[in-house]
């Protein structure tokens, strides 16, 4: 078999997006909306994006990050009774391995 070492065209490399920085006034409007309503419907996201001069996806990302922050704040870092009792998925950590032979 003949293997060609020449490229047939440019390689499409997906670069990670830069973190969007919101101005103080944009953050204040988004935070006020979040505190009042909790979530935003599609029409709300579009209206907020237009009002703040942002893309709809920026507003979507802001709400996702804000909900994640809210979940972290409500669960807290000490949500388990003893350290090591559960792993990061909330499962019991009793040294059972997926590929064990069944004999302990």
Average pLDDT, all residues: 76
Helix and strand element order: HHH
Q: From the alpha-carbon coordinates, what is the Rg to the nearest angstrom? A: 23 Å
Helix percentage: 40-55%
Number of DSSP strands? 0
Structural class: mainly alpha
Q: What's the shape?
A: elongated
Low-pLDDT runs of 5+ residues are 79-85, 95-101
- Biggest sheet character: none
Strand content: under 5%
How far is it from the N-terminal to the C-terminal residue, by CA?
Answer: 50 Å
| Count of alpha/pi helices | 3
Give a written overview of the molecule.
- By secondary structure, this protein is mainly α.
- 43% of the residues lie in helices and 0% in strands.
- The longest helix has 20 residues, at 56-75.
- It starts with 23 loop residues before the first helix and ends in a 29-residue tail after the last helix.
Summary?
This protein has three helices and no strands. The protein has 104 residues and is an all-alpha fold.
Describe the secondary-structure layout:
Elements: H1 24-37, H2 42-52, H3 56-75
Tags for this model:
elongated, mainly alpha, 3 helices
